[in-house]
Each structure stands twice: as structure tokens, then as C-alpha cells.
């Protein structure tokens, strides 16, 4: 769980469906780490969910060829623009999924859940259906079929996720999306733009922005 719209909505959905859920969040040297981890902690506290934060900052130098972890400025513009590929963090979801699978197997959990959606497919190779299909094969082999991989929003748009979140009464004021990592959302980076469009498509304003008024 990053603390953004997708993973937060996923947590609400899993709890609504009656699953016992533990949360894993990761710090890997991302510029917005303090803000998004703070958001995830606030949601977990509100929902009384146990959260384990995994510190991977020692790996930052190995994955620094990204606007999120290195000296490259965070690009502005729409999320599907070519320039947003600068925000790809090498191996991010693969590393996180590997650790989550190991933890799940260790504690006897039945599955791991990830919040990727179809808006991610153009930019991030490790959010595409082909990656998820391969990851399920890896999970089958590495855990002997004991742990499955759940991606209920894989075919959803961000707007459809927000629609589901409205149904689930998600408190989006406790989420964070902006990649810049400032005290307030920049409203210019791709993930800020996509977030605003998703709320607008559902006829509401982003609660995080309402707090600033």
C-alpha cells in the first residue's frame, strides 16, 4: 500500500469483502515517501489494520535512474505522456511483490493484493496484465501454489476505482498521490492530473484539495 488512491481503495474493498488484511508499505528512497507513507499510516490507523513498513532505502543507488528516486526532475503533464516514463522505477513492483510473497508464505497468508490499474499500463511495464500473469506463475512455483496474486482493479480506470471507492466510503482526504513530495500537491505532475480527472469524472472534487480552501 503506497497511500495513494488505488491501494487505499483496494484496502477498503478487501475489508468490505470480509478478508483479514495486513498491509505492507515500502520506502525505497522515493521523493514523496514521507507524504505517501504518512497517508498510508493514517488510513491503517483509521481502519485498525496492522501495517508493516519495509525500508529499502539502501537500494536507492541501484534504482536511481528515475524521477522518483534520482536527481531527475519530476515531469509535468498528462499521465499517459511519453515524458512520464521518467517516473518508472526499475524493478519496483517486482521487488515489492517478491517481498510480499515471502512474507505471505511466512505467515500463512492466502494471497497478496496489488492495486495496479489499466491507466498504468502505458507507462509502467510492471503494471501490465502480462506482468501480472507472469507474477502469478512465479507465485505458483515459489510458494507451491499456497499464495495467490490478487489484482481486482487491473482492468479498471482510475475514475472507475474512485467510483468504487465512493461506494465503499473511502476517506480520500487521507491519501497522497503527488510525486513531487512537497507539503501540498503540485497539481501539475502526471499523477496529480490523473487524480483530479478521476474525481471530476465522478462529479466530485478531490477531498485533499478541498482541505486547502
Describe this structure as you would to a colleague.
The chain has 213 residues and is mainly alpha-helical. It has one domain (5-210): 3-Layer(aba) Sandwich (Rossmann fold). The chain contains 7 helices and 4 strands, in the order H-E-H-E-H-E-H-E-H-H-H. It has helices spanning 5-16, 33-47, 92-107, 129-143, 158-168, 190-201, 207-210, and strands at 23-27, 51-55, 111-113, 148-150. The strands form 2 sheets. Strands 1-2 form a two-stranded parallel sheet. Helix 4 (129-143) links the parallel strand 3 and strand 4 (148-150). Helix 1 (5-16) crosses helix 5 (158-168) and helix 5 (158-168) crosses helix 6. The longest helix has 16 residues, at 92-107.
How would you concisely characterize the structure shown here?
The protein is mostly helical and 213 residues long. The chain is built from seven helices and four strands, in the order αβαβαβαβααα.
> Overall mean pLDDT score?
95
- Estimated helix fraction: 25-40%
Largest sheet: 2 strands, parallel
CATH superfamily membership, which one?
HUPs
CATH architecture annotation name: 3-Layer(aba) Sandwich
- Unreliable segments (pLDDT under 50, ≥5 consecutive)? none
Strand order of the largest sheet: 1-2
Q: Work out the strand percent.
A: 5-15%
Number of domains: 1
Query: Helix-strand pattern, N to C?
Result: HEHEHEHEHHH
| The level-1 CATH class | Alpha Beta
- Give the CA-CA distance, first to last residue: 28 Å
Oligomeric state: single chain
* Overall strand count: 4
CATH topology: Rossmann fold
* Total number of helices: 7
Rg calc: 16 Å
Q: How would you describe the shape?
A: globular
Class derived from helix and strand content: mainly alpha
Amino acid at each position: 500500500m503506497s497511500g495513494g488512491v488505488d491501494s487505499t481503495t483496494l484496502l477498503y474493498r478487501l475489508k468490505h469483502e470480509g478478508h483479514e488484511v495486513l498491509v505492507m508499505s515500502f520506502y525505497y528512497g522515493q521523493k514523496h515517501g514521507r507524504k505517501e507513507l504518512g497517508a498510508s499510516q493514517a488510513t491503517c490507523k483509521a481502519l485498525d489494520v496492522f501495517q508493516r513498513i519495509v525500508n529499502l532505502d539502501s537500494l536507492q543507488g541501484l534504482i536511481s535512474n528515475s524521477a522518483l528516486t534520482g536527481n531527475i526532475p519530476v515531469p509535468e503533464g498528462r499521465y499517459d505522456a511519453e515524458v512520464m516514463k521518467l517516473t518508472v522505477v526499475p524493478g519496483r513492483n517486482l521487488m515489492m511483490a517478491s517481498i510480499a510473497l515471502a512474507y505471505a508464505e511466512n505467515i500463512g497468508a492466502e494471497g497478496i493484493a496489488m492495486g495496479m490499474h489499466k491507466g498504468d499500463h502505458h507507462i509502467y511495464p510492471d503494471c501490465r496484465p502480462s506482468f501480472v500473469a507472469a507474477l502469478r506463475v512465479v507465485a505458483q512455483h515459489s510458494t507451491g501454489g499456497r499464495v495467490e496474486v490478487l489484482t481486482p482493479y487491473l482492468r479498471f480506470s482510475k475514475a472507475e476505482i474512485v467510483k468504487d471507492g465512493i461506494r465503499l466510503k473511502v476517506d480520500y482526504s487521507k491519501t497522497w498521490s503527488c510525486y513531487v513530495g512537497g507539503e501540498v500537491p503540485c497539481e501539475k505532475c502526471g499523477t496529480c492530473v490523473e487524480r483530479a480527472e478521476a474525481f471530476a469524472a465522478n462529479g466530485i472534487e478531490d477531498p485533499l484539495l478541498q482541505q486547502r480552501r
